[in-house]
Amino acid sequence: MEEYKRLGDDGLESEMMKHSKALLLLSSDFGTAWNSRKLVVSKKQQLSMYMGELLLSALVLSCSPKSDQAWSHRRWVIKSITGKCSALQEILGKESELVEKIAERSKMNYRAWNHRCWLVSYMTREQVLHELKKSRNWAGLHVADNCCFHYRRRLILRILKDSKLENASPGYSVEEVWKEELDWNEMLIKRYIGREALWLHRRFLSLCWMKQFATDLHDVSCHSELKTSTINSFNSFIDNELHLLNSCSTVPDNDFEDFQVQATFSATYILWLTKQIPEFWSEFQEKLTIGNLKAMLSKVCPERSFLWDSLID
Please, are residues 308 and 298 in contact by the beta-carbon 8 Å criterion? Predict the structure, then answer.
């Protein structure tokens, strides 16, 4: 590298690229080898060389799917070609597919999913909606992997952000996206008993909606029809969550602990919900029997009875 920097010889450049490739296939996180390639590619500024780096890093990841340096190198390439490549959106789509394929073989690979989350900021609105729809099947088959739900949360946050722009696309309905995701999440909760990742995702969805609800309530006048409609929508949401609690709180008499875990998750979710909107605590008291909730928590998880007392009181 020092000799190449000093002389800039094409022969040395070829040697450095050849040997760095061999080194990286042997040691995927060899930072000096990656940096030597960046030095050459940055100097040449040729799109074909940038594409070659994507191919090499994909080859490295096929052997070492959790290589931090390889994923970082791909992000460097994408940053470098942004604004210079007309096929950037197509490349982003292939990047998303690559993460999904690697995640299928390498479970709980948060480095791969972090890379996919990073891609969201470069996507168009149409791509974000497409990714949200496309990733649903994978997430539905891997409900224990919180990484894929974190990716969906990143996509939804991008949708929320774009919806606040003045030039937001027609038909870009945040309410529809939120309701569809909430219904899908409920279906998974009832199908896959006792999966914490699903309940964490529901907390995110509920929190997003409550923030939007609070904003809408401040934006409308005290006696407007819109305010009444917003409050009715809130009450409908609360009723639905309480119905979900009732459906998940039954613990059949069997040897499996999944139903007990499900009951605990559902009850603690409702407790969490009451803490987020204390101004509507009276409405909760009317619809929720606190004594029954406390009894259920003490039954399914007696070792935490002190925690339940402190939270409910």
Answer: yes
Q: How far is it, in rounded angstroms, from Cα 173 to Cα 159?
A: 9
Give residue 236's Cα distance to chain centre. Answer: 26
Q: How many residues does the chain have?
A: 313
Contacts of 97 (CB under 8 A, 6+ apart): none
SS3 221: coil
Cα 17 to Cα 19: distance, rounded to the nearest angstrom: 6
Amino acid at 238: I
**pLDDT tens digits, 36-88:** 999 999 988 999 999 999 999 999 999 999 999 999 999 999 999 998 998 99
Question: How far is the C-alpha of 277 from the C-alpha of 272, rounded, in Å?
Answer: 9
d(CA 311, CA 37): 56
Residues in CB range of 81: below 8 A, 6 or more apart: 47, 50, 88, 91
Domain coordinates in residue numbering, the chain: 196-313
DSSP secondary structure letter of residue 30: -
Distance CA 254, CA 251 (A): 8
- CA dist 32 and 119 (Å) reads 25
CA dist 182 to 146, 187, 203, 210, Å?
Answer: 16, 9, 10, 13
Which pLDDT tens digit goes with each residue over 3-32? 877 777 777 888 889 999 999 999 999 999
Report d(CA 164, CA 96) in Å as an integer: 26
